[in-house]
Structures are given as structure tokens and as C-alpha cells.
Amino acid sequence: MNTFQNINTDYIKSSRSIETVLVSNENLKKLFFIYNYEGNSFRVFENHLDLINFFQNKAECNFHFNSEIELDSFLSKVKIAN
FRET label pair with 64: which of 25, 40, 49, 75, CA 20 to 30 Å apart? Predict the structure, then answer.
């Protein structure tokens, strides 16, 4: 099972933020970027470029969740590769 830790939160508006989350297991670590839209929609990006492209309407997110419970479940189980 993975552990995850919020490294940084940047607020776009009071109800919208971009969180940088470090997900790790015994030997591996990976950063994810999460766009939190009003606490009702969580879009997960595997790298910074995908996040930028999303805001420029050039790409979709890698994963999308409708609740924090779904998001936390994903982060605790996501495969981390080298």
C-alpha cells in the first residue's frame, strides 16, 4: 500500500487549487498534480506538462474522480514505476 503526502497547494481561486502530492511505497516515489475543483471534481496528472496542457485545452487529465474518497483510494493503490 502506498502512502501519500501533500507537498504543496497553490490556490487558483478560494475553491480551486492545484495540489502537488508525493506518493511513495517501500522503494519508489512519484509526484502527482491534482486539480481540485470546488471539492467536487479531482483531476489527476502524472506530470507538470499534462497539467499545463489541460489548462490550455490541449489535453485531458490522466485520471478523474468525483470525491476525495475515490481519490485517496486511487493514490493508495496506484502503481509507481521507475
Answer: 25
